[in-house]
Design brief:
Blueprint: H1 9-18, H2 38-48, E1 53-55, E2 58-59, H3 63-79, H4 98-108, H5 112-119, H6 123-131, H7 138-150, E3 153-156, E4 164-167
Antiparallel strand pairs: 1-2, 3-4
């Protein structure tokens, strides 16, 4: 069972079908209200199903168990204070750049494998993106952004001075 976020679930299913010999079908689509953030719901559902995690966004659960987890995740995210729910991820025109990705990993002292594990993607996806060999799908970029944000980084928008990435809060220097 795959639990993920997609603007166009049918299109996402078609893309997934090209990469697997197994028959895939869309078991359920949960429309997320604009007042909450789908990525936060996705992360909460993944946390609830951590014991059944297979790989990336794939889990060894039934449709019923996945749906129960997603609905519980929605309630959990809705119960948070507004400040606890980060704003929406960058839009595709201001999405993560390969330079921000490399800088974010360096700031966190993460290898490509570390980032891949944190965001549920393959090492190859990260490597190809950073080398400029392939542009990842927007949902994969959102996953990378989410991993960086969860680790305490924030993105600096393009504002004439150039897009960037930095720690959300300044770290104090000790003696």
């Amino acid at each position: 069972m795959k639990i993920g976020v997609a603007v166009d679930p049918a299109k996402r299913l078609r893309v997934l079908r090209t990469g697997t010999p197994f028959p895939l079908r869309l078991a359920h689509v949960e429309m997320i209200d604009a007042s909450i953030h789908a990525i936060a719901v996705e992360r909460a559902a993944h946390t609830l199903l951590a014991a059944a995690h297979a790989h990336g966004e794939w889990f060894h659960v039934s449709v019923e168990d996945a749906l129960t987890a997603v609905q519980a995740a929605i309630r959990e995210v809705q119960s948070r204070e507004p400040a606890q729910v980060r704003g929406p991820p960058p839009t595709s025109d201001q999405m993560l750049t390969k330079e921000q990705c490399r800088a974010g990993r360096a700031m966190l002292d993460w290898s490509r494998s570390d980032l891949a594990k944190e965001c549920g993607l393959s090492d190859r996806t990260i490597t190809d993106f950073e080398r400029g060999a392939r542009e990842p799908h927007d949902n994969n970029k959102r996953a990378m952004c989410g991993a960086f944000e969860a680790a305490g980084l924030e993105f600096i928008p393009e504002n004439g001075g150039g897009a960037g990435i930095r720690f959300r809060e300044r770290k104090s220097l000790e003696g």
